[in-house]
Design a protein that fits this description.
Rieske domain-containing protein; Rieske_2Fe-2S; 166 residues; alpha+beta; Rieske Iron-sulfur Protein; membrane; 4-stranded antiparallel β-sheet; 6-stranded antiparallel β-sheet; transmembrane; elongated; binds FE2/S2 (inorganic) cluster; Rieske_2Fe-2S_sf; 2 helices; 2 domains
Length: 166
């Protein structure tokens, strides 16, 4: 069976053959897939966005923290501990890509990529590149304490009323 002359002319006069068209569609789909994958990779590698909230916040008074106590400030992603030596605050933001770590017995676990930190915030398992941040605690004129989430202090720095370390 022969192709009617009319269709032959359309096919021959068309600037793009069916094969070319399908090749272009395949190339376009491959480029789209690659683009989507690249966008996904870029989003994956960016830290989680944090809400723009004041970085300094009140945590109460030293007496509010009996020795051995701890308190999590979920919205601030900070945990405050009290031990015999004083009060200290640690960031709960993973140093890998910014996920919030969860407090476990004697350690912190990151749910995103599996980093683990010991009770002092030191990295026990990667990919986190550095320890959790210890944050500055200050006493205000009214006796209340505040934490500055933008001011890191050396690991082990503790605040107490006698020597006001931190
Ligand atoms: S954000 Fe990647 S391990 Fe915590």
């Amino acid at each position: 069976m022969s192709i009617p002359e009319t269709f032959k002319n359309v096919e021959e006069s068309s600037p793009m053959s069916r094969r070319d068209f399908l090749g272009l569609v395949a190339a376009w789909m491959a480029a789209s897939s690659l683009g989507c994958a690249l966008i996904g990779l870029m989003k994956f590698s960016m830290p989680a966005l944090l809400p723009d909230i004041p970085k300094t916040f009140k945590i109460g008074r030293l007496e509010d923290y009996p020795i051995g106590s701890e308190k999590i400030f979920e919205e601030r992603k900070v945990i405050v501990f009290r031990d015999q030596e004083g009060l200290y605050a640690m960031s709960l933001i993973c140093t890998h890509l910014g996920c919030t770590v969860s407090k476990q017995v004697g350690q912190f676990d990151c749910p995103c990529h599996g980093s683990k930190f010991d009770a002092m915030g030191r990295v026990k398992a990667g990919p986190a590149p550095k320890p959790l941040s210890w944050l500055k605690i200050s006493q205000l004129p009214d006796g209340k304490l505040d934490v500055n989430a933008m001011r890191e202090v050396p690991m082990g720095t503790k605040f107490n009323i006698q020597n006001r370390v931190g």
